[in-house]
Predict the structure.
Amino acid sequence: MSSERMTHLRRLEAESIFIMREVAAEFANPVMLYSIGKDSAVMLHLAAKAFYPSLPPFPLMHIDTTWKFREMIAFRDAMAARLGFKLLVHTNQDGVAKGINPFDHGSSLYTHVMKTEALKEALTLHGFDAAFGGARRDEEKSRAKERVFSFRTANHGWDPKSQRPELWNLYNARIRPGESIRVFPLSNWTELDIWQYILAENIPIVPLYLAAERPVVERDGQLIMVDDERLPLAPGEVPLMKRVRFRTLGCYPLTAAIESDADTLEAIVGEMLLARTSERAGRLIDHDEAASMEKKKREGYF
Amino acid sequence: MTEAIAPVSAADYLARHEAKGLLRFLTCGSVDDGKSTLIGRLLYDTKLLFEDQLATLASDSRKHGTTGDELDFALLVDGLAAEREQGITIDVAYRFFATERRKFIVADTPGHEQYTRNMATGASNSDVAVILVDARKGILTQTRRHSFIVSLLGLKDVVLAVNKIDLMDYSQSVFDQIVADYRAFAAEFGFRTLVPIPISARHGDNVIARSVHTPWYEGPSLLDHLDTLDVESVAQTRPFRLPVQWVNRPNLNFRGFSGTVASGTVRVGEAVVVAGSGATSRVASIVTADGELPQAGAGQAVTLTLEDEIDASRGDVIAAANARPDVSDQFAAHLIWMHEDSLLPGRPYLMKIGTRTVVMSVTEIKHRVDVNSFQKLAAKTLALNDVAVVNIATHDPIALDPFAEIPQTGAFIVIDRMTNQTVGAGMVDFGLRRATNVHWQALDVSKASRSGLKQQKPAVLWFTGLSGAGKSTIANLVEKRLNALGRHTYLLDGDNVRHGLNKDLGFTDADRVENIRRVAEVARLMVDAGLIVLVSFISPFRAERQMARELLEAGEFIEIFVDTPLAVAEERDVKGLYKRARAGLIQNFTGIDSPYEPPLDPEITIESGALAAEAAAERIFAFLLQNGYLG
């Protein structure tokens, strides 16, 4: 079934485009979840390619926890405007009213309310029957078994046992009213593939991925950037200016930076080749408990 | 913390890495043959593991591991909590690693028999199969089963990895015997390459590099072999096919057909045909976001524009005009059943082939294949993991190719219409006839003219419910009422039809489906004759009632659910059947040991427990009157 003559990047690109076109053709009301990170950047770029010369027949949606890096929000609005995509932004207002934050409520509850619940709320509100996400199978163990079309119940739940077998490129898009599918067009990409593609296609990314002097504090061996005045400092704790960058982007209090001098894409890839820590190690939410990602997914996390 | 690396060397690396090819392979074999361990070993030895992953692995190995103080590589890939606890692999995991030459995607598939469907799933997306055998155990049932499925899914290149050779003192004679045993049964599978390699996944012998422990082995290490294996790219050499995914219409001046080239190549100016309609044109342009292309080959995602304004939409196949696919509504196929609910011949399912989804049913199970002995066995239904050769009829003609010639347009999945589950996977063997040669005979006197004479709108009143619910009693009253008014009716009663037309059928699920199919077809003919047909059948399954509904035109099928609770029907027990069923004298009795699926949205529901038969009949009559069935 393969075409050895296409390089692996072109094969991955063609596969992702195929998946996006299937979803556009088979679902009544799809949406692309835009997290502003590098994977989302690639997904957006592929969506623009997939439907060219048309614009993608679905909007972008960002779940704003209100704790994203400020640079991410600026980048988000610029990208949507530049590509001409429709952008929806959703925040769990109930969570905001209750003042849910990662410090007082812990990363687990905070993530549940401001990400998982917010996402479910937004999907229900707009009646989306398919939602693209940029997750990759190489990120984490339970992701390795994720389908490209991941079936969710009317309550947005994920049951690993009821997932459908996926044969060839014949994706089963049949759902009942209320049910939905999460679609992962980047399933077979690795972190290196993502960077390589960004470089080859000259895709814009949030500058936070590149090394620069930034104010950080060190907590439990992780470097947390002081992105605004809301980050509570311990008595005597003083932010230090360090040359850092991020391998993954999320909510700033939950995303650890790494010290780095890599301020070009080439340098990032060079650094990666020597890297000895995996990408998700910088995500504090995965460390909460064993099998934590699987548990979050059962509850409806992306 | 991090070493600086000169940008120039990263750029070099990127340039080399960008030109890499991609190879997808699966690992399969019996449970405990060491598949997960092998993949963990490949990741470890190709330096794809990070420090934090290794730390997690070390702590997991102490907690759940089965290898003492050593790292248990299987824990790296067994991702779901249930698997880690049970120490088995229950789903397909995809893993990634790369060498200087290739990027690899590995499908790690389960060994347990009940997960054979997952193994088939992994195989459907792979170029090469690595079949593991435990050197201590030799060829097992699962080895044969998996090899058979691998061949069924069209894989041509196989590696026979004889694992745990360390536990047999790296014995050449053990290895040779297993290879001989394997070749003996695999000869008929027509693998293009079969490369046996003695390995120890746990210790790494012959995985990345040749092992000093097996001086008698002269072949390549597993990774060397996968790195250099020339995977035959058949798809490029076949005739051009492009299943249309999406019609691209940004404005009135552009109309393109977006899709991925399934096979062959296409050039601007070449003659193409829309397989279903037979309309022909030439390719005007091959559009991509990176500019127009002079030609496109298998695997490329493109948008075609054509010189003529011909009609094509999602599900159509654009093909080379001089090498067209078969267009047929009947074909023979190999089918792998993947669900706990058995396949029932005659039951309508959906199938997705290419980008087309149609209603189909299996008209005949020619034989089932015993995947252990490869013998052909008779079968009336197919259970989970069964493999069979079947004939299939589709509702509409579809474009198809034999799977052996063009897998992309010869592969299909089967979807249950009620649950939407993917329940089967199929491979087209050949079209049975050209559907275009068999036409429905057009007749001059129509249904409308026949029913017009009778001053009625023909319809089927489909009574469904448990035995003893009161279906026949009510149907009888309704027919008497209509007859007294001079309407032309006929009552098809379950018991009566089973004495004649359906006397060859029993009460298994498969026979119940055929029973209803025949009655539905007879009812359709009677509706065509202009009659109001009353059908009084238990008809326990939603799928078959749906099939009957779809045989008729909108408004012609009136589903009447005679909703009598089991306790009430059993209490009545007019024919003494419940008593006998409870005593075990009748098998497969609806409501006792065979399920009844109540209608979800019937036109009429009769709570016959509460309503007298006469009142029920009156309600149905009123429905007919109000909705214009009686002229």
In short: The longest strand of chain A covers residues 212-219. Residues 205-287 of chain A form one domain. Helices of chain A lie at 8-26, 38-51, 70-83, 93-97, 106-126, 191-201, 265-274, 292-299. Residues 27 and 129 of chain A are 7 Å apart (CA to CA).
